[in-house]
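Long-time lurker, first post. I've been practising inverse folding by hand and with some scripts of my own, and I keep getting stuck on stretches where the structure tokens seem ambiguous. Below is the full token string for one chain I'm working on. Before anyone asks, I'm not after the true native sequence, just a reasonable design that respects the backbone. If someone could post their per-position residues I'd love to compare against what I wrote down in my notebook.
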């Protein structure tokens, strides 16, 4: 059989075409962004039944609520505001009285010169519960909000029922070094600054706010094993499998140390799983909060 000999010039042309086609085929895979690498938009607030500010402990603390049933308080992460948890409000409002809070100095809430501490912010929540006539509530907390929830469980055990602690650390060495330089987290910090200037009663003092709260982050939280073992609330320790800031072994340690705690790692999500995959996040918290007590 006679073999057809391809001229050298044609070989070069075909090789170039194959290379070009291969590069176009490979490009989408190379350029694909995983869900955990995204920062979806901050959800819009829901239509509240009640919203306003509580004058307590020297500040004006913003809070809002909707729904009826057993109270659930949603506590956001550091630098953020309660709008980030609107998907969770929608998931819980059918069976719960859902209360959101902008932590002191965050969002629509004011702050004073009192040095920040997680116990300070946790006691703001207790004071708000007192004003609202809520003897006990479940808490869904993200990051700093989850730390506040565990602080309440340690120091005010009768005031909290079930706790969902997402993206939480209980010691400063549980954090990944320089996580704020992660592109996704850096984008969040930039957005948080813009939202602060839009919502805050002191819109021109974002840098002062960062300085004040940053002093707390340098040394808190720093709880002992004994303090974690004292928690009697049912706790669901949650995180994303690509959390930018929390070491996986630290999440496992928390779940192992708090008595009878459960652990859930959400796949293909990060420190922002509640907006990256709200369907899976909400299914988990609804199942935990509405399940057997």
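-- Answer (accepted) --
I ran through it position by position. Result:
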């Amino acid at each position: 059989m006679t073999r057809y000999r391809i001229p050298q010039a044609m070989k070069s042309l075909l090789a170039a075409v194959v290379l070009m086609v291969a590069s176009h085929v490979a490009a989408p895979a190379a350029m694909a962004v995983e869900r955990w690498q995204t920062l979806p938009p901050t959800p819009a607030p829901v239509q509240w039944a009640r919203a306003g500010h509580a004058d307590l402990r020297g500040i004006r603390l913003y809070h809002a609520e909707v729904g009826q049933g057993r109270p659930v308080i949603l506590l956001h992460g550091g630098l953020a505001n309660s709008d980030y948890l609107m998907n969770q409000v929608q998931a819980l409002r059918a069976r719960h009285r859902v209360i959101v809070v902008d932590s002191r100095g965050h969002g629509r809430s004011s702050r004073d010169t009192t040095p920040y501490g997680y116990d300070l912010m946790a006691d703001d929540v207790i004071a708000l519960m007192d004003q609202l006539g809520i003897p006990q509530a479940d808490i869904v907390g993200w990051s700093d909000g989850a730390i506040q929830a565990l602080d309440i469980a340690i120091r005010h055990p009768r005031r909290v029922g079930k706790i969902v602690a997402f993206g939480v650390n209980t010691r400063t060495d549980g954090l990944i070094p320089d996580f704020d330089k992660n592109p996704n987290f850096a984008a969040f910090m930039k957005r948080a600054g813009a939202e602060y200037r839009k919502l805050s009663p002191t819109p021109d003092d974002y840098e002062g706010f960062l300085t004040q709260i940053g002093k707390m982050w340098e040394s808190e939280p720093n709880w002992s094993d004994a303090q974690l073992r004292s928690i009697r609330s049912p706790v669901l320790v949650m995180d994303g499998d690509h959390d930018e800031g929390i070491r996986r072994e630290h999440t496992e340690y928390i779940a192992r140390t708090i008595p009878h705690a459960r652990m859930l790692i959400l796949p293909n999500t990060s420190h922002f799983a509640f907006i990256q995959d709200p369907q899976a996040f909400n299914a988990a918290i609804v199942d935990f909060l509405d399940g057997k007590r």
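A couple of notes from the structure itself: The two ends are 81 Å apart (CA to CA). The chain has a mean pLDDT of 91. Happy to go over any region you disagree with.
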